[in-house]
Amino acid sequence: MDTNKSNVAENDPQFEAAFQKKIDAEIKIEPRDWMPAGYRKTLIRQMSQHAHSEIVGMLPEGNWLTRAPSLKRKAILMAKIQDEGGHGLYLYSATETLGISRDEMYDQLHTGKAKYSSIFNYPTLNWADMGAIGWLVDGAAITNQIALCRCSYGPYARAMVKICKEESFHQRQGYEIMMNMAQGTKEQREMAQDAINRWWWPSLMMFGPHDADSTRTTQSMTWKIKRTSNDELRQKFVDATVPQAHYLGLDVPDDKLAWNEEKKSYDWGEIDWDEFRNVVAGNGLCNRERLQTRRDAHDGGKWVRDAALAYAEKQKKRTAAKKAA
Amino acid sequence: MTNKETAAELPLYEVFIRSKNGLHHKHVGSLHASDAEMAMTNARDVYTRRSEGVSIWVVQTSDIIASNPEDKGSFYDPNDDKTYRHPTFYNIPEEVGHM
Q1: What is the DSSP string of A18-36?
Q2: Which sign, positive or negative, has the C-alpha torsion A29, A32, A33, A36?
């Protein structure tokens, strides 16, 4: 809530040791506490990316708002999208406690300097995609976010708790859509299968690179920003989700997928990392469209923000004049 | 307000919510708004979509005066050497019963 930084240098070794001791003792770090520059920087990067993902994540679903198959589905989808917007705001607000302004963050998103989850650069081609997104994409996000509820930075952890509570509805409504379609007509089953075919692998990519290739993981784990590694979380998601797909009678698009009795978990194939890198680099099917939509929305809303500020200013002057009279 | 190229960011407000009667208002986060009225409306939309509260406070962040973590010592230390402020400082015989 307050971003006044401490007067101590951000690389003071004595403070750094005391800081790590606090982290090791599971004491949360709060906005005005001393923190190393790297800790602040890592959090700003991760939290703002997380916020951007929530906001951009509204766009693929917005595509189906006017074409939802019933009023009930439309109302549900609208509520889910509104939640995503809210989640973005909780996260922006938590990130601002680290001393970066909202405008700076928007600017980083709109200029492409900051990333958002590459999953949202895939198109939503049919209604079953709304089911697959809720079930798989939100499912993967929840797996990741539950681990973040125990993050060492207080405002981030608190935002995550609130978000996790709300996300559960997202995943369940998605799975229900899939269930209806999987139990529906032949065409509906085909649409559901087509949706899982396209969303399965991108959902697994959401957990990021392999631990061995994830340069920042070790430091983030030491600082307890991250509590569980990318590969562990990904495996957890696979183990939880494959039986759900089987229940629907849908195939998981992976020839190598097999239950490993010894490990008590699934063995599975390999992610196409070239595709991952390509989409992250900006060459996914919808990267340009998503960013342009965001920029247009921000620029298009400028006159509203300006008018609201002008109105507030005018009201303030009127009140002052009344008091003086 | 002057017609600047880029308008200033909307001011920041902190949001406090009383989840039900009988409980304190609790800080839940912040938001940007042009004035108190918009802050209140936005707080309702952003922080109470699932009946999380019965009462909302919004306070402009710049109006909050906060203590510094470094002041911890001078603010809170005296409590530690005034152990007579705690009930455990006093020995009451067991036969007196719970007190």
Answers
A1: HHHHHHHTTPPB-TTS---
A2: positive
Distance in angstroms (rounded) separating the CA atoms of residues A183 and A179: 6
What topology does CATH give the domain B7-96? Ubiquitin-like (UB roll) (3.10.20)
pLDDT by residue (tens digit) across A36-51? 999 999 999 999 999 9
pLDDT at A264 over 70: yes
C-beta separation of A208 from A46 below 8 A: no
DSSP 8-state code for residue B51: S
Domain boundaries, chain B: 7-96
Q: How confident is the model at residue A81, as a pLDDT?
A: 96
E strands, chain B, are: 12-18, 25-32, 55-60
B65 at the A interface (CB within 8 A)?
Answer: no
Interface contact flag, B1 A310, Cβ < 8 Å = yes
Which tens digits make up the pLDDT trace of B40-56? Answer: 999 999 999 988 899 99
Cβ pair A231, A211 in contact under 8 A: yes
- CA end-to-end span of chain B, whole Å? 63
Residue B4: its pLDDT value, please?
Answer: 40
Q: What is the ipTM of this complex?
A: 0.87
| Contact by Cβ (8 Å): A140, A237 | yes
Q: Give residue B3's pLDDT band: very low, low, confident or very high (50, 70, 90).
A: very low
| pLDDT of res. A263 | 95
For residue A137, give both structure tokens: 């994409």
User: CB of A96 within 8 Å of any CB in chain B?
Assistant: yes
Nearest to A315 among B33, B35, B69 (CB): B35
| A21-56 per-residue burial string, b: 16 or more CB within 10 A, e: under 16 | ebbeeeebbebbbbbbeebbebbbbbbbbbbbbbbb
Partner residue facing A89 (CB), from B31, B34, B38: B31
Question: Nearest C-alpha of chain B: how many angstroms from A297?
Answer: 16
Does the pLDDT of residue B63 top 90, yes or no? yes
Tell whether B38 is within 8 A of chain A (Cβ).
yes
Partners of B63 on chain A (C-beta within 8 Å) are none
The Cα A282–Cα A203 span in angstroms is 17
- The DSSP 8-state label assigned to residue A269 in this structure reads -
